[in-house]
Amino acid sequence: MSDQTLNLEFIEYDLPNGLHCILYQDNTKPNVCVMPAYQVGAKDEIKGQKGIAHLFEHMMFQGSENVSKTGHFDSVMKAGGTCNAFTGFDSTVYFDLLPSNNLELALWLESDRMNSLNITQTNLDNQISVVLEEKKQVVDNAPYGTMTSNYLKYIFKGSQYEIPVIGLEEDIRSFSVKEALNFHNNFYSPENCVLMISGDINIEKTKDLIIKYFGDIRKKNLITRDKNIISELESDGELTVQDNVQLPVVSVCFQIPGEESDEDFDLEYFTEIIANRESSRLHRKYVYEKNIFKSVHAEKIALKDAGIMILLQC
Fold first, then answer.
1. Are 38 and 193 in contact (CB under 8 A)?
2. In the β-sheet with 296-302, what is the strand arrangement from edge to edge?
3. What local confidence, expressed as pLDDT, does residue 6 receive?
4. Residue 303 contacts residue 257 (beta carbons within 8 Å)
5. 139/194 same-domain check
6. At what angle do helices 71-78 and 103-115 cross, to 10 degrees?
7. Range of the domain at 305
8. Could you tell me the pTM of the whole model?
9. What are the tens digits of pLDDT across the range 251-306?
C-alpha cells in the first residue's frame, strides 16, 4: 500500500474591519459549509448573566433586519441544506451546510444577523422558555445530568469555567432586552469572528462575496475580558450524589492543561489507550478480568485555558 500525503491548503486573511477569514477549496462534492465562529462563550459571562451566551445562540435564529423569525432555517432548508449552532466556554459557532450554488445565500444570512438582530421582549421570553425546558431535559431531569455542574465547580472553582454553559436558572429567567442588545453589540462583531468557508468554492469569487456581504459591517468592539485564573487543585476531593438511576457511575476527574498545550495531543491518544477500546488497559482490567464495571470510558475536554480528563466507569 503506497503512502498518501493529505495536502490541505488553507487561505487565511483579514478584512479591514477585523473579520478573519479561512477558506478551503475542495471541489470533489457539490457542497459548501459556511461557519462563523464568534470568540465568545460562557467564559465571557458576568455575574448575574450566567447562561446568556447559550441563550444568545437561540436568539440568533429569531430573525434579523431583513430575515423573518423563522427565515434563517426556512431559507437554508428550502435550498436543500441544514444549519445549526453550538455554544462552548470559549466560543459560539454557527454553521450552514448547503449545495455550493447557495453560498451567497448563506453569506447574506450570516452577515444580516451579525449586523442586526430582531431582539424583542416576545422573542426573548420565548427563547428563555425554550432554554429552561432544554435545561430540564438535559440536566435537571436527565440521568447523571448534574455530573457536569458537579465536577466543574470542583475542578475549576473560582474560575470562569465554574458554571456550566447552560447557565443558572435564576439568571436565565432575569435576562432583559437591554442585556441581550448589549451582548450582541459587544461580542457579535467582525473583529471578534472567524469566518470559515470550505467545500466546492472558487477562492477569488468567494473573497468577492465576503467583501460584498461583510466588508461594510462596522461595529465597535467593546470587549473587555478579565483573565480567567485557573487555580491548581491542592488536594483530592470526593463527592457522592444520590440520584434516581439504575446503574451507579464512578467518575474520576483530573485538571489538565489547555487545548494549545504541548500535552494536548498526547492526552488525546492516552484516552484511547487507557479506556476507549476493548483492548484498553482499564477495560481489560475492570470489565473483563475483575468484572467490576460493565463499561469504562475516558474523555478529554480541552478548553482554551485548561481542561478536564474524565474517566467514567459504570
1. yes
2. 250-256, 307-313, 296-302
3. 66
4. no
5. yes
6. 170
7. 250-313
8. 0.91
9. 999 999 999 898 988 998 898 899 988 888 988 999 999 998 888 999 999 899 99
Q: Are 73 and 106 in contact (CB under 8 A)?
A: no
Q: Is 242 left (phi over 0), alpha (psi -120 to 50) or beta?
A: beta
Are residues 188 and 65 both part of a single domain?
yes
Q: How many helices (H) and strands (E) does the chain have?
A: 10, 9
Residue 234 lies in a domain: no
d(CA 235, CA 245): 29
- The total of structural domains in the chain comes to 2
Q: What is the pLDDT of residue 313?
A: 85
- 45 and 173 in a single domain? The answer is yes
Checking if the pLDDT of 1 tops 50, the result is: no
Confidence label for 243 from pLDDT (cuts 50, 70 and 90): confident
Residue among 164, 159, 157 nearest 135 (CA): 164
Look up residue 272 and give its amino acid. Answer: E
Cα–Cα distance for residue pair 49/56, rounded to 1 Å: 11
